[in-house]
Structures are given as C-alpha cells and as structure tokens.
Amino acid sequence: MTLLIAILSILFIVLTFLVVSKTQAILKGLTKSEGEESEYLGAPDKFNSANGVGLFAFWIISIVGIVWSFIIYKKDFLPEASSIHGRETDYWFWVSMIVIMIGFFIVNTFLFLFSYLYRYKKNRKVTFYTHNNNLEIIWTTVPAIVMAGLVFSGLRVWTKITSEAPANAEQIDIMGKQFGWTVRYAGVDDNQFGKYNYKLMDDAGGNPMGVDFSDPNSFDDFANASEMHIPKGKPVLLKIRARDVLHSVFIPHMRVKMDAVPGMPTKFWFVADKSTADMRTELGKPDFNYEIACTEICGRSHFGMKLLLVVDEPADYEKWKKSQKPLLTENPDLLSKVPDNLKAKAQKYSEPVSVEVTPEVVATNVLGNSSKVLK
Amino acid sequence: MSAVSQVEVHEHSEHAHEEHHELGFIRKYIFSEDHKVIAKQYLISGIVWAVLGALMSLVFRLQLGFPEMDMAWMKPFLGDWISLDDKGLGKLDPNFYLALVTMHGTIMVFFVLTAGLSGTFSNFLIPLQIGARDMASGFMNMLSYWIFFISSVIMFVSLFVKTGPAGGSWVIYPPLSALKQANPGSGDGMTLWLVSMALFIVSSLLGGINYVTTVINLRTKGMSMDKLPLTIWAFTFTAILGILSFPVLLSAALLLIFDRSFGTSFYLSDIYINGQALPNQGGSPILFQHLFWFLGHPEVYIVILPALGLTSEIIATNSRKPIFGYKAMIFSMAGIMFLAFIVWAHHMFITGMNPFLGSVFMLLTLIIAVPSAVKGFNYITTLWKGNIIFTPAMLFAIGLVSFFISGGLTGIILGNSALDIQLHDTYFVVAHFHLVMGSAAIFGMLAGVYHWFPKMFGRMMNNALGYIHFWITFIGVYLVFFPMHYIGIAGFPRRYYQWSGFETFSTYMDLNAFITIAAIITVFAQAVFIFNFIYSIFWGKKATQNPWKSNTLEWTTPINPGHGNWPGEIPTVYRWPYDYSKPGAPDDFIPQNVPYSATPESNLPEEEELVAKEKEINSIKYDTSLHD
C-alpha cells in the first residue's frame, strides 16, 4: 500500500512537472501560432498514436490491477454469511458478478482495442457503415435474455426472503432512536408482547419504548439496549420500528437490512445458523462478535449506532431469557403506570425475584459486556 | 466573460427585420437573451460549483481516509467546524461531515450536472444545430438563468448559516430533514436548501419548456426530425423528463416546507424526540421517498442523456465515421426516457415498502439495462473501422463510454432486490452511481467543452494540456471508484463519519487511504483544465470556422456568431448529420447543408430520389426571423 502511495506521489510530481514545462512551451509558442484561416485545426497531432496505444495499454494494466487487487482483497469481501437466506443471496451475488464481469471485460476490451486498432492512419480507408438491424436485434436480445434469467432468480429469492415469517418464529421488537437500538422480548411467562404507544414514551420515567403497562402482557417483557440475543437455527422475526427519524437495521453477517420508520412498523425474518461461538472457531477470532449497524442517515452519531448481536445455542438462549429482568423489575417506579385492577398481577414482577443464575448464563452475558442500560 | 466581447451583432440589409441596435453591456452580457451568452453563463456557473463541490468531497475524503489526521490546518477556512481536542488536534465536526456530504451531492447533481451540463449545452447547441436564430423565447431563457442564479446564491449563503447547511444527505428524507431538533443541519440550512431547490425547479422548467418548444417549432428548412443530430434528440428527451418529473419534486418540497413550518403531518407520524412526543400522526415518511425518487430517478437520466448525446456527436466526428445505428440510438434513448419514469422505487427496496412492489420495480429496472447496453454497443461499433482522431474531446467521450459500461453493469446487481438487501446504502452504491452518472456525465461535459470551445469562444483549447488533463482524470477516476466497490462488498455503510466503532468494518483502512490520495490527485488535476479554459478564452489559438471538419449546422456560422447566429439566411438542411467518409466523396465529411444534387459522386441509390425533393424543401416558406 505504501508502495502504491509512493508510486502515485511520484506520478503526481512527474505530471506536475510536465504541466509546468508544457505551459511554458505554450507561452513561448503563442506568438507564432496565428496560422492561416483554412488550416485543419482538428487534424491528428503527434500524440494521436500515443493516445490510441495508451488507451489499450491502460486497459491491459487495468486488467492486471483488477485481478491483483481482487486476489488481495477478496478475503474481506462479503463477511462470512451466517444465515440461510444470506448464503443464497451470496450465491446469486457471485453469479451476477460473474455475468457482469464477463460483460465488463468483453465490452471494455472492444472499446479500448478498437481505439488502438483504428487510431488515425493517413491512408486508412474508413468503412461507411451506418446500421445493421440484425446486429441491433442480437445485442438487444442477448442482454434481454440474460436480464430475464437474473430477474427470475432474483424474484424467486426475494419472494422467499420477504414471505411471511413462520408461526414459531422468535419475535423481537427492535426500536431505533438517536443514537442507539433497544430490543424488547415478549418475556418468558406469557411470551406475548405488551402493546406500545409512542405517546407513552418517557425517557426520564424509564419507559423509552413506550410500553403500555395497562396491558398485562407487558408485565414480563424485558428489554436491552446493548445487545440482542437470538437462538441459533430458529426463525427470528424482527419487528422493526423507529421513534424519531428513519434508521435502518443492518446485520452484515446475516444479510439483513430493513429500514426503521416512525409510524410504520416494518419486519424482517431470518434464520441464523452459526452461533457466535461457532463463528469464533470458524474464523479463528476468539473475540469475534456479530454487530448491528444503522444504514439510514439519522444525524450526528449515525456512525455510532451499534448493537451487539449474540447468537446462542437454543438452550443457552432460553437460559439467557430467563435470567433477564422484566422492565417492571428493572424499574419498580413503572408500577405506577399499571391500572389499579392489575396492580396485584404486576406486583409479582416489581419485586426482585431471585433468578437462578448458572455459570453458563453468566458466561453468555459476558460475551457482549452485557449490562442493561436503559436510559 | 470578456472574451465574448468579440461577438458582434451582424447586420444584414437583405433581412431588414434583423437589423437591431447595438445592445448595451448589461443587456449583452448580463441580462442577455442570446442563447449563446446564456449557455456560457450556465457553463461558468457550473464550473464554479464543480470546483466547490469537488473540494468539499476532498474534505470528507480526508476524514474517511485518514480519520486520525490533525485537521487544525483547515481551521482558517472552516472555522468552528474544526474542533480542537484537548491535545490540540483538529477534528472535523460530525455534523459538518454530514453537511459536506449533503452539499456535495446537491451541488454535483443539480447545480453542476443538471444546470451546468444540460443548461450549457441545450442552450448552446439547440438553436445552432437545428438552425434557429435563438430559443423560442429568449426572455424565458434569460429568466431561467437568473432564477437559477438566485437559487445558487441562496444555496451558497446556506453554507454560512451558523447551524450549517442542510445535513440530511441530498435525498433529505424526513423526519430527519423535517425536525429541527433532530439535526442542526435541519434548521435554517434546510430552509434555505428547500427555497433554493424550489427556485431551481422553476428555472429548470422554464428552460425545459423552451428547449422542447424550440426543437419542435424552430427547425430550419429541411431539418426533419430524422435529420436531427443525436445531441438534439438527447436534449429533447432530457427536457421532457425534466418537465414531467421536476414538478413532483416541487410538490414533495412544498409538503415538506408545510411539515416544517406550518405543523402539517404529511410525512410525520408517531415521533418522540428530545423527551417529547410530537402531536403529528398519520403521515408517511415513505410518501416523501416515493415523491422524491419520482424525480430522483429520472434525474440521473436527466444528467446522463445530454452527456450521451454530446458523446454521440463527438465520437462520430472524430472516428470520421457515421454514428452506428442512428435510429437504434433514438429508440434506445426514447426507451430509457420512458422507463426512467417507472423504476423509481428501486431506491426503496428495503424501506418497508410492500415486497410485491419491490418485485415489479426490480423487473422494470433490469429492463432499462437493455437500451443502455444497446447504446454502449453502438458507440463501440462506431469506432470499429473508423480512423480515430484522439482530440481531448474524443478521449473524454471514450472515457465516458467506459465509465457508462463499468458503472452501469453494477446496476444490474443493485437493481436486483434480493442482492440489494446487503448492498443497499453501502459504498457499492456510491461506487456504482459515481461511475455511471457522476463521472460519465462529467466526462460528457468536459468532452463537450473541449469540442465546442471553438464555437463558444472563437479560440482553441490547448491539446497537450487536454491530454494531460484526460489521462490523470481518467486513471484517477478509476482508482477512486473501482476500489470503492470492494469496500461496498465488504458492507461498509454510506454516510459514516468513521467506521472504527465496528469490528466488521475495521478492514480496508488502506483502501480508504488509497482512494483519498487518488481523489486528491484527480481533483487537483482539474486545475490543468481550469487553467487551459481561462487561458484559451483570452489567448488560445484562433479557431477556424469548422476546426473538426464536422457536419452539423453550428459549424456553418461565422467563427464568432453574433446574435441571430447566421449573418444571412439560415442554411437549409438536406441530409442527416453523419455523412462522414462517404464512399466517392472527395472530402471525408459532407455538411448537412450540402444538397444531394451537389454530390452526385457519393450519393447512394436511394438518395438519388431525394435530389428531386430538394426543390420542395427550398420552396418552404419559413419565418425564421428573430423575435425580440
């Protein structure tokens, strides 16, 4: 890399020198440049051949550069896919890539080759060739067929990815805000989300997601603002929302991306089939973590909207869920939002319940320096 | 613009109504109604904006390539946007980073590639190439430029607002752009952005209506639609696209203004921000995206079609060979124009829009690749068995074709909604559109300037400097944007101030540094062009009447055409514009105004019949006088 930079800098200096010397030459030659009126100013000059050859040479060097850089950088392309649909889109990405690279090399080769072959020569006979309908038909049909193939494969994959989530999918409510993500789980007791309403959102009062505590389903819901856990091998349905401006959930390794829109909940479902531990072994990186990023510009700290994603073995996932404290336990003040007739039911959650914490669960929690920050 | 001072108003007694008094300096060069002066005004405004837009990109490229860099040296001109940390290191403010990205996009797309490209060459070439004395309405044309000027001034002023210029990226998606409390860039800067763009749209409509009217009504004798140069076809299609899609952006902007200032809820719903729930309900941010992209997508064709038109002319002239598949070129441009209206939602596959809608737009998007491919093939076949003269204009035109192909191909991947999931809003997209529309259109514009400079200023630009400019820019553009695809494939998101917070995006810092260096070299190489441009206006070699031995009508005007373009009668057109190297002809070009009866040695059998029709053409009575 440093070498390349050095080469570029040298190139720059040389070219600067050329420009300066050329300019001086022009300034000198200026006075005698007033020629006769009828001269052919656009006639090919002494650089004509060099330019033609140069274009072809540029292309040859480019091919070498493209192949070389591709080999060097390929290892970091498309981070290892960890979801089932992700490997499918990766496959079609590379199929399309091969198709367009064939087009890229063939068409550019013709362009630069013709520039080289047909550079001006005094005695060259130009072929007066205005049109050829057969050719037009061929090069309309061939791309059309190739496109049809790509459209067909794309449609199939797209329809599958965007189909309804399976009924047994693990649902997670994920909300984007300036500048972070908060996830909410339906809880282990009823496995039902409590309703939410943006008018109930209250950062100071400990209810940033606007959970409606008049809905008893919300009592065992728990939330997390620093990491999201999902089970391996089980469909996960993300119910995505935003509370201030647009955000977009992007999980690079899962090939998941979906905008979070205020006022319009969106969703995306997928199956992660490699746990965090699997990936650490596979990549040989003991500190590897899945990450969730924001890909819709949302303001100053758009680049900092990170949420850790932990993919657990299903059993660990269940254990982790059990170890999480419901919102009401986390913040007993929220009990005041519960209507009187449900207070008795909610009371159960607002007192610290001793959860049996097994060493494995602690270990899982430590994965993403877990701490529940809900501010 | 004092080089224009040589332009004289030619007065000729055979056309009494053409005689007019000498105009004063202000009417001649400032509030001019002459399409050529207006074109130059657009060109120079476009160049000024391009310099500004390019320098902005360097500031954020430095941030991306060298995030640890001490930027204190930029404090003298960026002021408070560079904050000093406790160690005295200068850091770019993240809000200002977003503002820079926003302004770079806005300036380049609208002020450079729409006004600077289409405004310059549609104005300059339409009357000259169809054989008209001026635009259908010179006054509207003048108004169009000056409204654009006011719009420019407002956009420029917005750079100096205390909270910074608009900062929600050039697509200004609400709610970010609608809520002042969400982002400093959504404050006064955004208000000015909206006002400026509303004026810009007015200017663009005034211009577009004028272009279409002129092409339809003011063609000279014999200039039937099938004899129009491809440039004119391209400008016409561009103008139609603009007329039909810009008003939609205007309504989108107006509704946004209402949401921002008058408490309406077109785009706002269920928002809790800064500890407060807003009353707005029922609006849809997605609605704005539909409206925005209904212009936004045609806009990329508004940018690229004129560049393709200019290229057609330049490639044919310098290959000394007819453009291959003239009619196929027209049909593919018409196809592109039509399809351009119905592919907008491919920018929105993952916005939560109904996935079925995504399928429809994916199908339509991939169809548009076909006419685009046809254009590329036709250019290449035009080069085949030609006798190519590599003027700087020709080099830039070939560069355009290469960028159009290389950048267009990745569109096939992005247009596929399933593959777009991973690549949407990553650097893959940035690389794609900077090649296919950004660089390609800029190359078209530069090619146009080199090629028509003699007609604009009566002097030649220096070729050697042109070659240097081309080579650095051409190589530089590929070095900047090719590696960007890699970064995109690795998943790096756009509009990130830095990536170091993510382990996933911690690779490729070397590539980012490399891109930044290549960008710096490429941008500074443009100084060669600016020098050449200004120098040649005043001291360039004097041009001849038809320096490139070209066929189109503009080269039949005097070296410095005056108001009214042709001193005498406007030439009559008898043939298509691409009779280059016709077998049997003594010269390798036959201008459009040479009748078939004068070239019996080179007429094709079917053209012999056209000789008889010449009398008919000659007897047409046209009122081609200049209406002041």
Give an overview of the whole structure.
The complex is a heterodimer of chains A (375) and B (628). Helices cover 42% and strands 15% of the residues of chain A. Chain A is of the alpha+beta class. Chain A folds into two domains: 47-161, no CATH class; 170-367, Immunoglobulin-like (Sandwich), CATH 2.60.40.420. Chain B has 628 residues and is mainly α. In chain B, helix 7 (230-261) packs parallel to helix 9 and helix 13 packs antiparallel against helix 14 (463-489). Mean pLDDT of chain B is 92; it is low at 1-19. The two termini of chain B are 23 Å apart. Chain B has one domain: Cytochrome C Oxidase, Chain A (Up-down Bundle). The chains are: A alpha+beta (375), B mainly alpha (628). At the A-B interface, helix 1, helix 2, helix 3, helix 4 and strand 7 of A face helix 4, strand 3, helix 8, helix 9 and helix 10 of B.
The portion of residues forming beta strands of chain B comes to under 5%
In the sheet with the most strands of chain A, the strands line up as 3-2-1-5-8
List low-confidence stretches of chain B: 1-19
For the largest beta-sheet of chain B, the strand count, sense and barrel status come to: 2 strands, antiparallel
- Percent of residues in helices of chain A comes to 40-55%
Q: Give me the CATH superfamily of chain B.
A: Cytochrome c oxidase-like, subunit I domain
Radius of gyration of chain B: 25 Å
Structural class of chain A: alpha+beta
